[in-house]
Amino acid sequence: MIVAAIGAVFYIQTLSYDFVLDDFSAIKENRVTKQGTSALGEIFKTTYRHGYTIQGDELYRPVPKAIFACLWQWFPDNPFPGHLLNVLCYAFTGFMLVITLSKFMGQQNVLIAFIASALFIAHPIHTEVTANIKSLDEILGFLFFIISLYFSHSYLVTNKNNKIAIAAAFYFLALLCKESSITFIGVFPLMFYFFGNNSISSIIKTTAILFVPALVFLAVRSSVIGFSGAGEVSTADNLLMATDNMLFRKTTAIFIMGLYLKLMVAPIQLAFDYSYSQIPIVGPGDWRFLLSFAILITMAVYAALNFKKKNIAAFGILYFFITASLSSNVFMIIGTSMGERLMYAPSFGICLLLAWLIVMLGEKIKPAADNNGEDAMALIKNNVLPVGITMVIIAVFGIKTFSQNPVWKNNMKLYESGVKVSPNSTRTQYYLGNAITKPEYMEQFKGDSVQIKKAMNEGIAYLKRAVEIYPGFTDPLTQLGVAYYKMKDYNNAYKYYEQALKQSPGVATIHNNMGTLMFETGQYENALKAFEKAIQLDPFYSDAYNNAGSAYGTMGKYDQAINMFTKCTELDPVNVMAWKFLGITYQNKGDAARAKQYLDKAASLEGKN
């Protein structure tokens, strides 16, 4: 309970925070999530970000998204339940971690189990995961894995089939929360080997049973997404793509692994984004690669030499390597180059290693016979030095966590912090510029045109800086077009939309935005072509259907307009404007009854909002 309390206390201040960052694509601006419980069936049959306009989505995480849909059903547009759930699940993870480790490691190593769990739950590198509602996928993925371990141990001790069935079920849930949970299949046999006197045959049998849900998950995921993934990764998403030199990609990835280790040992400066070009590309002769490589190799050699001894530190190192393998970019390129959230589960291995070092520096652990029945207070009293060291570290971690949490209070604070900590990241500049040019930001000026223009120019400056850092980044070019469109500077808006389309002709949102500009300037035929191109590229793009309906309606083609508005309402049943335009279109056709039906529907939705 002590470890759980640490988790709850360290993050209680986040309960009042807003939706931030990826919360918008997964929750607040996701039309499927916002349909609530009625969309649960669709959620399990589609990709994670389905319902949000995005190019390429290779993620399949139906469990957290289903939870978000339920929360939206019961508490619409309210971030508090999401934050509360994150904190509670995080605290419960600490509780289960202590219990499960103690079962595996035995009484003789209970102090290491306690210290490792406490360090993990107190570590500031987890601020992003706990303070960002979307990262419930990370929390639940690890939590369900720990629960699966708990019941696996029970099965190894009792040989009861119901225990392994429960373990397999929870592992399947972990996979449905986060794809990287697939790496845990390599951790199960390690746990069974290092902790306990399990026979090789029982280890193989138990692992084989747990491999079944992994196979089922891969089959389900491939049926939803396929095997091709999301295609080419952009440099804006993963800085390793800035070079075609495969050796340099690998050496930079290893350097980034060194940066992760640095953050785990000394989490002094944390950032939500490390995009191009905040981290440099380094070659095989660069000291930063050589140092990272030397540390990682030393760890690997130590683990190999102490494998047969079932050394706890060796297990911690191997656990770290296994769980970080997919997100390391060493073996395969993923959708991002570095993110603190990616080290949520892997960081436990380093915490376990640190716990072992702390105990080794303190008093020797009592033999198991002497430790039987020892309560927490007695354990602390008889191990003053290691417990004291741990308390000091936790206090330092707590100070850092409390100072880092407010960064995640809202998007503006997050993005301002990002530009300060990662000024050379094209994404931090883009995020801040985008946020400043949003209508929500302008509301504070209450129609003051001078202040609004000043703010718009400030946002535009950040967006141009993002393009300056990485000219191939389409998003800030698109947003520059949006910003100039809002300022009624249509020439500049057209210029930036055109640049964005040259770079990314397959992005539906840019065609939609260009269509909006053409519609505003009276080019209805060209606007319609742009909207239809957006629909062709993304058949689920509800706004493009709505805009195409407006173009048809303006041109007097009411039947076509009705078809487009109807399709929009099918994709996005809570789109007020689509229902309203349907009513207006039927008015223009002289069908008063249907006009009233749809206008009333729009009014009822406005009332709910």
Description:
The structure is a single chain. The chain is an all-alpha fold and 609 residues long. Helices cover 67% and strands 0% of the residues. The protein has helices spanning 2-11, 23-28, 40-43, 62-74, 80-105, 110-122, 127-131, 136-158, 161-177, 187-194, 200-225, 246-265, 287-305, 312-324, 347-361, 368-371, 376-381, 384-404, 411-421, 426-436, 439-442, 449-469, 474-486, 490-503, 508-520, 524-537, 542-554, 558-571, 576-589, 592-608. α5 runs antiparallel to α6 and α28 (558-571) runs antiparallel to α29. It is globular. Residues 365-373 have low confidence and may be disordered.
Tags for this entry?
30 helices, 0% strand, single chain, 609 residues, globular, mainly alpha
The number of strands is 0
Indicate the mean pLDDT. Answer: 92
Helix content: 55-70%
Determine the N-to-C terminus distance.
Answer: 41 Å
| Secondary-structure class | mainly alpha
Shape: globular
The major sheet is characterized as: none
Evaluate the radius of gyration.
27 Å
Low-confidence stretches: 365-373
What share of residues are in beta strands?
Answer: under 5%
Oligomer: single chain
Q: How many H/I helices?
A: 30
SSE string, helices as H and strands as E: HHHHHHHHHHHHHHHHHHHHHHHHHHHHHH
SSE layout and pairing:
Elements: H1 2-11, H2 23-28, H3 40-43, H4 62-74, H5 80-105, H6 110-122, H7 127-131, H8 136-158, H9 161-177, H10 187-194, H11 200-225, H12 246-265, H13 287-305, H14 312-324, H15 347-361, H16 368-371, H17 376-381, H18 384-404, H19 411-421, H20 426-436, H21 439-442, H22 449-469, H23 474-486, H24 490-503, H25 508-520, H26 524-537, H27 542-554, H28 558-571, H29 576-589, H30 592-608
